[in-house]
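Problem statement: downstream parser choked on a complex file, so we are re-checking the raw output for the (2R)-2,3-dihydroxypropanoic acid run. The parser issue turned out to be on our end (a line-ending mismatch), but while we're here, posting the original submission so the record is complete.
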Amino acid sequence: MADMAADERLRVLVARRLFPEVVERLGAHFDVDYRESDEPAEPDVLAARLQGCAGALIAGTERIDAALLDACPGLRAVCSMAVGFNNIDVPACTAHGVLATNAPGVLTETTADFGFALMMATARRIAEGEHWLRAGKWTHWTVDLFAGSDVHGATLGILGMGRIGQAIARRGALGFGMKVAYHNRSRLPAADEAAVGARYLGLTDLLREADHLIIVVPYTPETHHLVGAAELALMKPTATLTNIARGGVVDDAALAEALRERRVAAAGLDVFEGEPSVHPALLQVPNVVLTPHIASASLPTRRAMANLAATNLIAALTGGTPPTPLNPQAAASRR
Ligand code: DGY
């Protein structure tokens, strides 16, 4: 795409510290206001920095809602480097004629790797054992020292069978001989189910049957506390629960209680309600592995996510076709 003449250049905001080469890519097309910060941009900061900007490259931490859009009338495109977009009010963007994009696809395998790793660490009590060893408590072998549950051959329950859910299913079925069951808003085509031998179950049956439940559904009003006290009560006391979706899909207080009472054997959590705060009761129970929302955090993948957001932003503002729009009709309505 040809660079615009200097006096025609649009202004864009990069809302968080990113990889320098991604900022340089944008700089070839736009005047870039680079907010080189690791702190999320709060709404007032974001609104102030977006004055005069036609576009923004954001992370999953910046909130884009009607109030912000009202305050930033020049904004035409908001491009997030996250796949989850619960921070973006997409209908409000559409109503304001603002194109919104996310970053699906590029993080699928990395996130599935992490979900599987977290599930394994949880089932095999790796973090618990590591903390205990570091505390100098290892004096002798015992027959059931940190004995957990098997992953191979067990029933893997996947709640949310999108791209990442299916990548986890492949790992479980093909790598570990797991029996895969899933629940999703819509059932997969038969060929996709057959590829990993996945059985579709209702949520109740999935909770009852899973030895290891992995949650990968998007966070929406419908999935808020999808797994709460009543759902946890259906799980086997030997089962584990891993959440790599979003905080708020699981009721963290209810989960902490179930873990404390060993009604659920163990949990692995990468996402939390109100993160970066973590429910204090979760910090008190030993049978939970806690990680700071890093499921997509391999360097190549984070670069790919940032680059996809930049590609979307460049295309959106230079007459191209953004590859991963959330509301393509918004772009059309501007023309
Ligand atoms: C995503 O891309 O949605 C990850 O959770 C990082 O925010």
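For whoever reads this later: The chain has 14 helices and twelve strands.
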